[in-house]
From TrEMBL:
Residues 22-97 form the Transcription regulator PadR N-terminal domain. InterPro entries: Tscrpt_reg_PadR_N, WH-like_DNA-bd_sf, WH_DNA-bd_sf. It holds the Pfam family PadR. It comes from marine sediment metagenome. This is Transcription regulator PadR N-terminal domain-containing protein.
Length: 216
């Protein structure tokens, strides 16, 4: 599975796919809690894989020990204690390095790989489409459920950030749809050209009746 694949860089220990995913989420959601990271992952990967506290919290502790993230202990609006995670300068540099050196090549074939695997055990096209939502050509952002009663400044800033991310995702998705339209037209043009060539180069076979066949 992609999450278990190791991605190395010039410096430091290799990252797993899950390391990269979690660190990227923290980068995009500054001040997110471990509790909120889990639904972000689960919403993105639907029924394919489920993140759990037993997986995510040890990973967060490891990222913190390696100084890739910082941790802030706070009380929420209901006076419950929680930890907020933020990516550090070292974390940004490490993430950028790993993505640059390894991730681009791997992600190019990841969509086809998952589609092939999923088709072997889930013939339902709807389920396959859910799997394909995980990858770069679907850039829709998935966010934790917002607390409609929390009017704190951090929550307001988070809403502003989410709006910007959704606008960016819309722009990227529009670009992808335009690219798909272009490819469809190119394929239609090629199909027309090939059909014309086939008709032009087809040999006409004369059909003879029985009498002509006897005198052949």
């Amino acid at each position: 599975m992609f999450f278990g694949k190791r991605f190395s860089g010039h410096h430091g220990d290799p990252f797993s796919g899950l390391d990269i995913l979690v660190l990227s989420i923290i980068k995009n959601y500054d001040g997110i809690s471990g509790y909120d990271i889990i639904p972000v992952i689960n919403e993105k990967f639907k029924d394919l894989w489920r993140a759990s506290p037993g997986t995510i919290y040890p990973l967060l502790n490891r990222l913190n020990r390696n100084s890739f993230v910082s941790v802030e202990d706070v009380n929420d609006s209901k006076n419950r204690k929680k930890k907020l995670y933020r990516i550090t300068k070292s974390g940004k540099e490490r993430l950028k390095e790993v993505l640059r050196d390894n991730f681009e090549l791997s992600i190019n074939t990841l969509g086809d790989f998952i589609r092939t695997i999923v088709q072997t055990w889930v013939p339902d096209e709807e389920r396959i489409n859910k799997a394909m939502l995980c990858f770069p050509f679907d850039c829709a952002a998935h966010h934790p459920k917002m607390d409609k009663t929390d009017y704190s400044l951090p929550n307001i800033e988070r809403l502003k950030r989410i709006i910007k991310e959704l606008e960016f995702s819309k722009l990227k998705l529009s670009g992808r749809l335009n690219e798909i339209d272009r490819r469809i037209e190119n394929h239609k043009t090629l199909l027309t050209e090939l059909k014309m060539k086939r008709e032009k180069n087809m040999k006409i076979i004369e059909i003879v009746d029985d009498e002509e066949y006897e005198n052949f």
